[in-house]
Amino acid sequence: MKQFPKGFLIGGATAxxxxxxxxxxxxxxxxxxxxxxxxxxxxxxxHTLKMPDGSIITPASSFFFADPVPAEADxxxxxxxxxxxxxxxxxxxxxxxxxxxxxxxGFTAYRFSICWSRxxxxxxxxxxxxxxxxFYDDVITxxxxxxIEPVVTICHDELPMALALKYxxxxxxxxxxxxxxxxxxxxxxxxxRVKYWLTFNEINAVKGFGPCGVRDSGNQSHYQAVxxxxxxxxxxxxxxxEMMPGSMFGTxxxxxxIYPATCKPEDIFHRxxxxxxxxxxxxxxxxxxxxxxxxxxWNRRGITEIKMEEGDEDILLKGQLDYVAFSYYRSNTxxxxxxxxxxxxxxxxxxxxxPWGWPVDPLxxxxxxxxxxxxxxxxxxxxxxxxGAIDEADENGYVEDDYRIKYLNDHLAAMCDAINIDGVECxxxxxxxxxxxVSLSTGEMAKRYGFVYIDMDDKGNGTLKRTxxxxxxxxxxxxxxxxxxxxDF
Length: 489
Prior knowledge:
CATH superfamily: Glycosidases
Number of strands: 15
Distance between the termini: 13 Å
Shape: globular
CATH topology: TIM Barrel
Helix content: 25-40%
Number of domains: 1
Strand order of the largest sheet: 9-8-7-6-1-13-12-11-10
CATH architecture: Alpha-Beta Barrel
Low-confidence stretches: 61-75, 208-216
Radius of gyration: 21 Å
Order of helices and strands: EHEEEEHHEHHEHHEHEEHHHEHEHEEEH
CATH class: Alpha Beta
Structural class: alpha/beta
């Protein structure tokens, strides 16, 4: 019999730019994802940002964009383009309804991100935007109404666009100070009501318009910016522990198990190096120091030096994470000669794929949980897992999504085996997209994850009506039975 441990947190997870909307309401400033059109393409004309006082911010250096920065100010947005984050699925106006739907399944946790530019519109303000703080106050109040634990992501793949343009984001140490100021504001306002925090999302996958504010992943600028993110996270953890005794901090690591393609020794060793490419990020944050293999990784990527200030190493050690949070959607393979990646790899011929080509491997989740717990000896938290699929709704918006039920059953069963048989300590599980939301990888609504169908298409058309799917009622039974109805896969 499958069983969740006592006090296990189970629920769902979302990101503000994929779910919240209201991009121009409540004093919110522009965020880096606000510039992405459907299809997840960044419009190349967006080189400048006009501020409320009429001043113009231009990029601090040309590498932020592929083409040269024009001398004149271009329009912020184009009339003929659709920007999914502006509306998303409008949690901003539907949060009470949506949280009630989560409560209907018996959720005990909801992981959500706070939009940085909703709190500090440009990131450089001395005082926060009260309307933005009140919105999240109201969200947490609604969660408390149903005894749902808030799990807060401080920075989910974004930052105020002004910080990205003016300072190249985390390429500048100035943004460390902006982040810590922002985090302190959240701790002051919500610290007595939030125990679980994530400093960053997918620390190993940030690039382009993500928190780094640099265009290319894997170069000198990227790894330098990531070091600044390490320091920012550690400072926030130290501050959070001081301000909120008993609080717990993690950072979401984007994981996908990687298997060697064959038992050829060169493939086995390549897997070791490939794994280090991804574990580098969470190793530093969970252990509090750079591992011995870091210099070899830098050398292979042509990185001459990571500039550190005096005291950085001590900050990293003192600000190491309390738990290891990670996402898991799929596994991949690799062989000698393959490109090193910070996430992903080649397909596995032994596995079936989702409609978007992602291999389905529930046993890989159990494998990862054991690997992480053996490596760090810290509690785990599965903060994203789910299946993007094409849902066919009937005339009432109802979806018979047995494929999603099968996917989630098998992964939850594997998780329970890791906990109950292997002895892995796990704080909780939040399934990605409890209600349908905009896909990060494609900018579509057609790629649906949720237990609840939302009537909206890829261009934002629809009534936004929320309708529970078959999986909604199945998940309710899973939670009510404390995992007892799960079947072996």
